[in-house]
Amino acid sequence: MPKVAQNTGFTAAVDAVVVVRGEVSRVTSWVERGTVPAYVIDIDGPWCAVVPAGPGHAQAPYDDPAQMIAARPVPMALRPSLAFIPTEKQAITVVQPRAWRSLPRWFVVQQGIGPVRAALPQASLGDLLSAGHDAHPEALGRVLAQPDAAPADLLRGIMAALGVNAGHLLGLARTAKIDAVLVEPTAKAVRRFDKHVTDEREERAEIEGRVNAGEKS
To answer: 73, 138, 81: which is closest to 103 by C-alpha?
Structure first.
């Protein structure tokens, strides 16, 4: 059973905020099947927020909590989903549409420049607006017209324009008090992920070895 942590201080809220469509119980089960411990918070509207609670339990380099929880595939029943990641110079939004077999798509705003192409599947403004709840295109346009804003502030503006009431979760102080469910991934889920990574690495090494052997012959 997940640990219930009421009025708990957030220790990593600035790293990422993911919002999915679903009840706390269903979102809790999804987090348990992952590799990153996280707080699950019921927020206004159809959303539940998921905030990393610490480093991931998978082997490095797959222990980065923000990247792992933001890029993790979300079940269709919990989509559309949105992830918001502020870095030093970038405001990153990851959207997973409700469409069958859709992959995470990335929308990146570079501070001082504006939207830039990511070296990953690209999200459009239409993707963001479709994933939102009671989204406002004009408000989103006004937010994106301010590329000099700090990445966290820009993401708060994007959240508001998309009808996601989770901007207060970005950059919370360690002493913040908020009701949440603290969920730890199961050991089985972490072992399964690590095995998958190891198997893929070994398979790739075997293929590369065959290619190198063929080039020498």
So the answer is: 73
Give the strands of the sheet with 3-8, arranged side by side. Answer: 3-8, 178-183, 38-42, 47-52, 17-21, 81-86, 90-96, 105-110, 114-116
pLDDT per residue over 153-198, tens digit each? 999 999 999 999 999 888 765 556 677 888 999 999 999 988 988 8
pTM for the whole structure: 0.85
Asked whether 164 and 133 are in contact (CB, 8 A), the reply is: yes
- The encoded tokens of residue 131 equal 């994933």
Do 16 and 90 touch, CB atoms closer than 8 A?
Answer: no
194/171 Cα distance (integer angstroms): 30
State which H helix or E strand residue 152 sits in. helix 151-161
pLDDT at 3: 47
Residue 111, pLDDT above cutoff 90:
yes
39: CB partners within 8 A, 6+ apart: 5, 8, 10, 50, 51, 53, 180, 181, 182, 183
| CA–CA gap between residue 98 and residue 13 (Å, rounded) | 26
Residue 214 · residue 61 · CB < 8 Å: no
